[in-house]
């Protein structure tokens, strides 16, 4: 009796893709919630700053930086925070689609990263501009997801 190999129509996702998606869910989920809730926390920013300064009264330079940051956060329009939150939600949707082995998820993730860069650097700017390390992390994740996408496409073409 002959045995036939059964090829799966849906290829099995790699563990590395799963890890990348989980990291994206954690990071993007945190920032999506942060920027969604920040407009509601704006009235409490002066109290939060006072509490922070009371914790570390001897750290004059750090307290001055925190004061500048809290003032800046209070001056940014709420709609800008909501736009930024939406970009992180798009990244989560992209990662979820990649987890389901959908090519469109990669494209959504790239779009979300570009929109996040534009929102932070051009729409909001100031103290919330992306640092070089943040840009590098985004590029690293895009490259890692791209490598996983190549594997997905290669496996699907073989089927």
Task: Give an account of the 3D structure.
The chain is elongated. Residues 4-8 have low confidence and may be disordered. The protein has one domain. The two termini are 24 Å apart. The chain is mainly α. The chain contains 6 helices and no strands.
Structural class: mainly alpha
Low-confidence stretches: 4-8
* Count of DSSP-assigned helices: 6
What is the H-and-E element order?
Answer: HHHHHH
Largest sheet: none
Distance between the termini: 24 Å
Our count of domains comes out at 1
Multimer state: single chain
Whole-number mean pLDDT: 86
Give me the Rg, rounded. Answer: 21 Å
* Strand count: 0
DSSP helix fraction: over 70%
In short:
It contains six helices and no strands. It has 159 residues and is an all-alpha fold.
Draw up the topology in text.
Elements: H1 15-41, H2 45-55, H3 60-75, H4 78-99, H5 103-124, H6 132-158
């Amino acid at each position: 009796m002959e045995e036939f190999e059964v090829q799966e129509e849906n290829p099995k996702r790699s563990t590395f893709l799963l890890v990348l998606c989980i990291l994206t869910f954690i990071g993007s989920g945190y920032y999506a919630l942060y920027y969604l809730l920040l407009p509601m926390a704006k009235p409490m920013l002066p109290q939060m700053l006072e509490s922070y300064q009371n914790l570390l009264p001897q750290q004059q330079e750090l307290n001055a930086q925190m004061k500048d940051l809290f003032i800046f956060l209070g001056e940014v329009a709420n709609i800008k925070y909501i736009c930024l939150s939406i970009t992180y939600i798009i990244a989560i949707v992209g990662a979820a689609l990649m987890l389901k082995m959908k090519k469109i998820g990669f494209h959504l993730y790239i779009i979300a990263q570009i929109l996040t860069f534009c929102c932070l650097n051009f729409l909001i700017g100031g103290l919330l501009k992306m640092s070089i390390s943040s840009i590098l992390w985004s590029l690293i994740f895009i490259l890692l997801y791209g490598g996983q996408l190549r594997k997905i496409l290669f496996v699907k073409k073989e089927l």
